[in-house]
Each structure stands twice: as structure tokens, then as C-alpha cells.
């Protein structure tokens, strides 16, 4: 109890992007609540959810921003790319058009996030094999991808975890600079500081000069 | 041994006798029953029946006998009896001798016992005396013992009491704190104890009132009050210390992601008992976070991400929508994160939503100014109505979005509302400006009586504005309200402009021009919701112009056939003026000539269409003008036909003047 779920040492910010109706909100819901929302309304603007996960023994809090896929919200949702450490780009394997639009989503993601943002491709609705419109092999050629189903929960966990692992790896090998603002990662020193020792400021955190 | 000796001797005799008999003659035991009366034979039988080997006494006697009867001779046999008697005597003498000493010893024992008894008696007496003497002492001792037991009990109770109602030294120490100022688990435990003791004392006071006698009651009241006082002192200093610590701890939480430690959560939880200190601590936290959020915003605005990507928000200040949108999205995310931090700080507290909202409001208050200044600058320098309207919608959207995280009273929301009001004003300002410009320099209608450029431009603006309203996500009511205002801001001045621009035209041109202008406005508006009343109003105006055009067209035809004069005279003719044919210009010949001309019109009606009618953009309107004017003409013809055929008007051969019936004319023209 004492450790509690709040004791995490990193916060990673994610965004989920992709055409409307591909199941972004369902994926988020499945990941945070472990439930499938059958009749999920279109997202208005952005919504967000959190969950604490563990990577290499480190507790990490994921702060996930689910964006609206409808075109009219593009202007709004674009503002949420900045400062994301991970971007989950989702298409619907039963609708080819959502796959065809990926390049435009990718362009946005590349232009609007920072260079270290981990972009992860997800083909959703893998439970609807009979209606498949994009083959796994084809998508695999486009990018290293992960097929999952927000309905059955298959692979959903992995999609979020693998992205976190990659980000964590970037931190470990130093390619992700925690000192920089808007890196999408916030670090909380795990060792308790001595509260009255004001002479040593933790070097990990924002030197805003 | 003495007793046995007797029997021993008797056996000896018996044995001797039996031996004698054995010596004399063997007796046939079973020989005859008559012998049973004979004592001798009875004796013999008895002897014979006795079983020697079973009679231990006999065996012993024989054994003893064999020790001294060694020689079996007559003499010895004769002397045996005296020998035995002698031996018996000797034995008895021995016995007496031995018993004599026993007796002597017994006598001495008796003496001893007697003296002992005397001794005991003496002792008993002395003890009795002693007991009598110590009786008081014993009583006293017992009393003291009881007292001591009672006291021990009390001591135990006192110990338990102290255990329960007093702090242990290490607890006191932990409350005083460590040199380096850190807080430990023990501190909270001790603080909890202090609280517990204080409460217990209160309970004690209350229960004592009910149960204890007055003196005990007074005593424990004093006790409880004393303890309570000392606990209160402990508590005060501990809370003071806890508050200082918390305050200091909170002050350091200015990083992007504050490290809300477990101890801090505990401290905040403990401070709940002191609402003022609790409040102050939360304020301190709020102030630290407020600083952090302001710094975060300024960083995002001016520094951007690592290596400049994402680029600083201010780099997009030339693109108002993106600039303002990025700022709002940043604020939205920061607000959500801050709420999370706050919730994690208060996770152990029963803090209500109101308190959370209060602090959150405080945290997000700092960014209001830098945000407001920037957005105001954008709004004030922006001229384009569409951009202004988009900004307005964006602000509305975020007011709604951020309003789901913070409460209505929060300064941030108020700021957004303020800016939103400004954007609203600026937007309508811009629309009005446009309107004023329209009326300032009115263009002349072009030769084709089509729309002027400014009409087209303004309608395009309207379309753009309405389009971005379609795309925005604002409440239905707000939309409707805005729509009305936008329409009256755009359409009214447009109509005005058209009227002014048409004012120098003749009525036919004016009608056609106005019909065209209104038609364009209608087609633009009809695509959107909430425009019904507007469209109705426009239609009414249009109808008026259509009426004008219809009568112009009809009179044009009649004029061309020279029938205008004829028709006018017929309409004004009174019977008292006499027959119609007698009136000047109404003679048969003149009317006939005109009717012939009219007939040629009937042959090809399209030759007599006003050029203005052809310039009408809407086919539907064009048709209806044509149809209505034909109806008018038919009506006029019918009128004239009836007048000419009227005998009172004295036309000879009216058939030759108006050869066609009105029905025929209608058929020809439709
Ligand atoms: N069979 C199946 N249906 C799914 C799955 N994921 C989502 N759906 C359905 O797809 C529809 C759209 O899902 P959403 O999560 O609302 O889609 P979205 O991407 O958030 O849409 P926007 O918010 O408009 O951008 C919903 O009716 C879901 O029930 C899945 O894995 N399998
Ligand atoms: Mg959604």
C-alpha cells in the first residue's frame, strides 16, 4: 500500500492518431479499462486517459491523448502532437482508405513531434479477419506494425508497452534528452530528496535558463 | 516368639507320642468301623491323618529336635521328655532375661516420652503466650499486606494509564524531529498517538462524569485536563513543524513533473486536522505549481522541444489559428496534468472536489496573463472576419474542453471567456466594417444587371463564415444565436447596398437587378440551417420586384400593340360618357389596327419580351415573370373583348375588330 500506484518514475506522453472510426478511442479504453466500448461516439477534439505500466522494473505513467479523426478537428488535434514521446498511428484493416491515409498522418506526425518521438503503426480490428482489406504483409512493408483488436483486447497491451519500451531504450542510450522541454517524458527522481537541503538541486529537472 | 513357644512344646509331645506309636505297631486305618469309638484308635487316626510334610510347625519342631537329639537310644528316649522340658525352661529363662532388658528399655522410653510431653506442654504454653502477644502484630501485617497489594494494583493501573496516556521518550523525540529536518514514519505514528491520547482524555472526561464519585471525578478531571493540555502543546509544536516541513517541501515542487513523495502525501493527510495549515500548504503547493506552469508555457512558447522540434509556439505567431490553437492545447494538457498531480498529492485525503478545484484554479491562474496578452494581440491585429470567427470558435471549443477539467469559476476559464467575448466583438466588428465599406462606395450595377463584385465577395465571405461555423463544435443554442446576428450583419447591409446601387436605374432595370441580387443571397443562404425566416423575408422582397417586372412586361406588350391607350380608356369609361366607339381614339378603325398588331404578337409572343426579363439569372423567376405577365395580358384582352362586344358601345361588326375569343388568346399565349 505504501508504495501505491502513484510511485512512478517517468511520465510518457502518447498521442493516438488515425482516421475517424478506426477504433482509437476503443483502443485507449481497452488499454485503460480492459473493456470494449461497442458503441463509442466520435471523439470531440481530444480526450485523455492514463495508466501506470512497468518497463524494465521502472514504473511509468502513460498519459495518453486520444485525438478525433474527423477532418474538421485536424486543426485542433495537430496542436497535441507537440511534446508527445510516442505516437500510435492507427488504421482499420477492414477499410483500405484508412490505410491509404497513413502517409498523411505520418507526415503530420513527423512534422509536428520531436525527432525522438517513437511512432508506432497499429492495424486495428484484427478480429474481423473475414472483412480484411489490407494484408498483414503489405502493411508490414510500409512499416513495422502490430495488428490488434480493441474488441478482443488481442495485442492491445503490447502496442502500448512496446512503444514505452522503445522510448525507455531511447532514454537509456541517451538519444532522448530528458532535460529538454517538451520531450514528452517527465522524470521523477526515484530516490527521495532531502527536503531541507536546498543547496543541491536535482540535475535531472528543468534548468530553465 | 513367646506364644509360639507353647505350641511348639505341645507339638513336641504330640510328635513324641506318634513316634512311639509308629514304633509299636502299624495300624490298619481302614480295618474296622468299630474301632472308631476307641479313643486310642481315634487318636491314632488323627495322627495318621495329619500330614506331616504340610505342617510347618511340626517340621520346625522336628528340625529343632534333631539339633539336640543326636543319639537315638533308650536312655536318650527316656530322657527326651525331661530334656525337652529342661530346654523349654532354659528358653523361657532366656526369654525372661531378654524381656527384662526390653522392659527396662521401655521404661526409659516411657520416661523420655514423659519428659518430652512435659517439654511440649511447656512449649505449647509458651507458644500460646507468644501467640497472644503477637496477635496484634499479625493483624497489622495482614492489613499492611492487603494495602501493599492494593497499591501494587494501583501501580499497575498507573503504569497502564501512563502507557496509554503519555508519550514515550522516543515518541517525544520523534515529534521534536531530526536535526536535518527530515520527517520519518515515526513522526506520523507519534502524532497519531498524541491525537489518540487527546481524544481518549476527552472520552475519559465524559465517562467520568457519568460513573465516578465526585472526588475521583474531580481528580481525574484534573488529570485529563493536564494531559490534554500537554498533548495539545505537543500537537501544536508537531503541527507547526509538520507545516514548516510541508511548506518547504512544496516550495521545491517546481519541476515539470513534481515529485510528490509518499511522505508529503502523509504530511498533507495529517495536516487535514488543521484546516488553516492544510489550506496554507495547498496554497504553497499551488504557488509552486503555478510557477512551474508559467515557466512551462513560456518555454513552449519561446524554446520549443529538444533541438527546436517541436518548434517554439511563438514561431507560428504569423498563423493566428495555429498560434492560438497550440497555446490552448498546451494549456489543456497542462491543466489535465496539474489536476493529476494534485490528485496524487491528495490521494490520502478526503479532500472534496471544491478544494481540488480551488487549488487547480490557483495553479492555472498564472498563465492567464501571458496567454491573454498574446491572444489579445492576435485578435486586435486580425482583420479577416473568417479568421476571427475561426478563432472565436476555437476559443469556444477550448472553453468547453478545459471546462471539463476546471470549474467555471477558475480564472483560466474566465480568461478564455473574456478573450472569447473579445473575439466575438472583433468578429462582428470586422463584419460591420465590411458592411460599412459596402455602403461607403456603392458600385453601379453592371450592364447585365448581374451581381456587383462586392456582392459576390460579401456572399463568399458569408459562405466562408457559415462554413467554419458548420465545422465547429459549439452548442446548438450558441450557433443559432450567432447565426441570426451574422445574417443581420451581412444580409441587411447587402440589401441596403443593392437598393442604393439600384436607385439610379429605371424601375424595370431596378426590379431585374434586385431580383438577381436577392436571388443570389437566397441561394447562398438556403444551404444553411436557421435561415428560414431570412429566406422568407427575402422572398417577400423578391415578390414585390417580380410584380413590378410582370406589370412592366404586360404594359410593354400592350404598348407595342398600341393597345395601352385603348385598354386605359375602356377601364375608365363611364356609361354616361356615351357609347365607347364615339370616344376619341376608340373608333372602330383605330381599335382594329391595334388589334391586328396584337394579333401579330400572338403569333410570336417571344419577340415582345423585355430585355431585362432575359437578364434574370434564375430560370424559375424568369418563367414566372413570363407566366404572370401573360396572365395579365389575357386579363386585359378579355376586358377589351367584352367592352367591344357590348352593344351599348355601338361597335359595328365587333367580330371583325376582335376576331379571337379570350380563350383562344389564352391558348395561344400559354
Ligand atoms: N470489430 C471491431 N470493432 C471495433 C474495434 N475497435 C473499434 N471498433 C468499432 O469501431 C467503431 C469506431 O471506434 P472508435 O474507437 O470510436 O473510433 P475512433 O478512431 O476513436 O473514431 P474518432 O473518435 O471519430 O476518431 C466503434 O463502433 C467500435 O465499436 C475492433 O477491434 N474490432
Ligand atoms: Mg475516438
From TrEMBL, chain A:
Residues 183-209 are annotated as: Disordered. Keywords: Endosome, GTP-binding, Hydrolase, Lipoprotein, Membrane, Methylation, Nucleotide-binding, Prenylation. It is a lipid-anchor. It comes from the Eukaryota. InterPro entries: P-loop_NTPase (IPR027417), Rab14 (IPR030702), Rab_GTPases_membrane_traffic (IPR050209), Small_GTP-bd (IPR005225), Small_GTPase (IPR001806). Its EC number is 3.6.5.2. SMART domains: RAB, RAN, RAS, RHO. Gene3D superfamilies: P-loop containing nucleotide triphosphate hydrolases. It catalyses: GTP + H2O = GDP + phosphate + H(+). It is found in: Early endosome membrane; Golgi apparatus, trans-Golgi network membrane. Residues 194-203 have a biased composition (Polar residues). Belongs to the small GTPase superfamily. Rab family. This is Ras-related protein Rab-14. The lineage of its organism: Eukaryota, Metazoa, Spiralia, Lophotrochozoa, Mollusca.
UniProtKB/TrEMBL annotation, chain B:
Residues 65-177 form the Conserved oligomeric complex COG6 N-terminal domain. It holds the Pfam family COG6_C. Residues 225-669 form the Conserved Oligomeric Golgi complex subunit 6 C-terminal domain. Residues 120-147 form a coiled coil. SMART domains: COG6. It is found in: Golgi apparatus membrane. Keywords: Coiled coil, Golgi apparatus, Membrane, Protein transport, Transport. InterPro entries: COG6, COG6_C, COG6_N. Required for normal Golgi function. PANTHER family: COMPONENT OF OLIGOMERIC GOLGI COMPLEX 6, CONSERVED OLIGOMERIC GOLGI COMPLEX SUBUNIT 6. Belongs to the COG6 family. This is Conserved oligomeric Golgi complex subunit 6.
Amino acid at each position: 500500500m505504501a508504495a501505491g500506484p502513484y510511485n512512478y518514475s517517468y511520465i510518457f506522453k502518447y498521442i493516438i492518431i488515425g482516421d475517424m472510426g478506426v477504433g482509437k478511442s476503443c483502443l485507449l479504453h481497452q488499454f485503460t479499462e480492459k473493456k470494449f466500448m461497442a458503441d463509442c461516439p466520435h471523439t470531440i477534439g481530444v480526450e485523455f486517459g492514463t495508466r501506470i505500466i512497468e518497463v524494465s522494473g521502472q514504473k511509468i505513467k502513460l498519459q495518453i491523448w486520444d485525438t478525433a479523426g474527423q477532418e474538421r478537428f485536424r486543426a485542433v488535434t495537430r496542436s497535441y502532437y507537440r511534446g508527445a514521446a510516442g505516437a500510435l498511428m492507427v488504421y482499420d484493416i477492414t477499410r483500405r482508405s484508412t490505410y491509404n491515409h497513413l502517409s498523411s498522418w505520418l507526415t503530420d506526425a513527423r512534422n509536428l513531434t520531436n525527432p525522438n518521438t517513437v511512432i508506432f503503426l497499429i492495424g486495428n480490428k484484427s478480429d474481423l479477419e473475414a472483412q480484411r482489406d489490407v494484408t498483414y504483409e503489405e502493411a508490414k512493408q510500409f512499416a513495422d506494425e502490430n495488428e490488434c483488436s480493441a474488441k478482443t483486447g488481442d495485442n492491445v497491451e503490447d502496442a502500448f508497452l512496446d512503444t514505452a519500451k522503445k522510448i525507455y531504450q531511447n532514454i537509456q542510450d541517451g538519444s532522448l534528452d530528458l532535460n529538454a522541454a517538451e520531450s514528452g517524458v517527465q522524470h521523477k527522481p526515484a530516490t527521495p530528496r532531502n527536503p531541507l537541503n536546498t543547496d543541491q538541486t536535482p540535475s535531472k529537472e528543468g534548468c530553465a535558463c | 516368639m513367646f506364644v509360639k513357644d507353647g505350641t511348639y512344646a505341645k507339638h513336641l509331645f504330640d510328635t513324641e507320642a506318634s513316634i512311639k506309636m509308629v514304633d509299636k505297631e502299624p495300624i490298619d486305618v481302614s480295618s474296622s468301623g468299630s474301632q472308631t469309638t476307641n479313643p486310642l484308635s481315634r487318636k491314632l487316626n488323627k495322627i495318621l491323618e495329619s500330614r506331616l510334610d504340610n505342617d510347618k510347625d511340626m517340621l520346625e519342631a522336628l528340625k529343632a529336635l534333631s539339633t539336640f537329639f543326636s543319639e537315638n537310644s533308650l536312655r536318650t528316649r527316656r530322657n527326651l521328655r525331661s530334656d525337652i522340658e529342661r530346654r523349654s525352661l532354659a528358653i523361657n529363662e532366656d526369654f525372661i532375661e531378654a524381656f527384662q532388658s526390653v522392659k527396662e528399655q521401655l521404661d526409659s522410653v516411657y520416661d523420655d516420652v514423659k519428659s518430652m510431653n512435659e517439654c511440649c506442654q511447656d512449649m505449647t504454653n509458651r507458644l500460646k503466650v507468644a501467640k497472644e502477644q503477637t496477635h496484634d502484630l499479625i493483624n497489622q501485617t495482614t492489613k499492611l499486606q492487603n494495602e501493599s497489594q492494593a497499591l501494587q494494583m494501583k501501580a499497575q493501573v498507573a503504569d497502564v494509564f501512563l502507557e496509554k496516556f503519555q508519550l514515550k521518550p522516543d515518541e517525544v523525540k520523534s515529534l521534536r524531529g531530526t536535526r536535518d529536518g527530515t520527517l520519518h514514519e515515526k513522526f506520523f505514528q507519534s502524532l497519531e498517538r498524541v491525537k489518540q491520547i487527546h481524544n481518549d482524555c476527552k472520552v475519559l472526561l465524559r465517562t467520568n462524569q457519568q460513573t465516578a464519585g465526585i472526588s475521583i471525578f474531580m481528580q481525574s478531571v484534573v488529570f485529563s485536563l493536564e494531559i490534554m493540555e500537554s498533548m495539545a502543546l505537543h500537537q501544536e509544536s508537531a503541527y507547526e513543524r509538520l507545516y514548516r516541513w510541508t511548506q518547504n517541501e512544496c516550495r521545491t515542487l517546481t519541476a515539470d513533473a513534481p515529485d510528490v513523495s509518499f511522505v508529503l502525501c502523509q504530511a498533507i493527510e495529517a495536516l487535514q486536522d488543521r484546516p488553516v495549515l492544510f489550506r496554507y500548504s495547498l496554497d504553497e503547493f499551488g504557488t509552486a505549481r503555478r510557477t512551474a506552469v508559467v515557466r512551462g508555457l513560456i518555454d513552449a512558447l519561446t524554446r520549443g522541444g529538444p533541438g527546436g522540434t517541436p518548434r517554439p509556439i511563438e514561431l507560428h505567431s504569423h498563423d493566428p489559428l495555429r498560434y492560438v490553437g497550440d497555446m490552448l492545447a498546451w494549456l489543456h494538457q497542462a491543466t489535465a496534468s496539474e489536476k493529476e498531480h494534485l490528485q496524487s498529492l491528495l490521494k490520502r485525503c478526503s479532500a472534496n472536489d471544491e478544494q481540488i478545484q480551488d487549488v487547480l484554479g490557483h495553479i492555472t491562474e498564472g498563465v492567464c496573463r501571458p496567454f491573454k496578452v498574446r491572444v489579445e494581440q492576435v485578435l486586435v491585429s486580425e482583420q479577416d472576419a473568417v479568421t476571427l470567427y475561426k478563432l472565436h470558435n476555437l476559443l469556444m471549443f477550448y472553453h468547453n474542453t478545459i471546462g471539463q477539467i476546471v470549474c467555471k469559476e477558475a480564472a483560466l476559464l474566465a480568461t478564455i471567456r473574456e478573450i472569447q467575448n473579445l473575439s466575438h466583438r472583433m468578429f462582428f466588428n470586422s463584419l460591420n466594417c465590411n458592411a460599412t465599406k459596402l455602403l461607403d462606395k456603392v458600385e453601379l450595377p453592371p450592364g447585365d444587371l448581374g451581381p456587383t463584385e462586392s456582392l459576390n465577395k460579401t456572399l463568399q465571405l458569408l459562405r466562408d463564415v457559415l462554413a467554419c461555423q458548420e465545422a465547429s463544435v459549439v452548442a446548438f443554442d450558441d450557433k443559432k444565436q450567432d447565426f441570426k446576428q451574422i445574417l443581420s450583419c451581412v444580409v441587411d447591409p447587402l440589401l441596403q447596398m443593392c437598393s442604393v446601387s439600384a436607385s439610379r436605374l429605371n424601375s424595370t432595370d431596378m426590379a431585374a437587378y434586385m431580383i438577381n441580387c436577392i436571388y443570389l443571397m437566397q441561394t447562398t443562404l438556403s444551404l444553411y440551417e436557421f435561415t428560414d425566416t431570412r429566406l422568407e423575408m427575402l422572398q417577400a422582397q423578391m415578390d414585390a420586384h417580380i410584380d413590378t417586372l410582370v406589370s412592366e412586361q404586360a404594359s410593354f406588350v400592350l404598348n407595342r400593340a398600341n393597345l395601352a391607350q385603348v385598354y386605359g380608356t375602356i377601364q375608365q369609361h363611364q356609361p354616361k360618357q356615351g357609347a365607347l366607339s364615339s370616344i376619341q381614339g376608340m373608333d372602330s378603325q383605330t381599335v382594329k389596327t391595334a388589334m391586328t398588331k396584337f394579333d401579330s404578337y400572338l403569333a410570336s409572343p417571344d419577340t415582345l419580351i423585355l430585355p431585362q426579363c432575359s437578364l434574370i439569372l434564375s430560370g424559375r423567376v424568369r418563367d414566372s415573370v413570363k407566366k404572370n405577365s401573360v396572365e395579365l395580358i389575357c386579363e386585359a384582352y378579355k376586358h377589351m373583348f367584352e367592352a367591344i362586344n357590348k352593344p351599348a358601345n355601338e361597335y359595328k361588326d365587333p367580330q371583325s375588330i376582335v376576331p379571337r375569343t379570350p380563350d383562344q388568346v389564352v391558348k395561344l399565349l400559354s
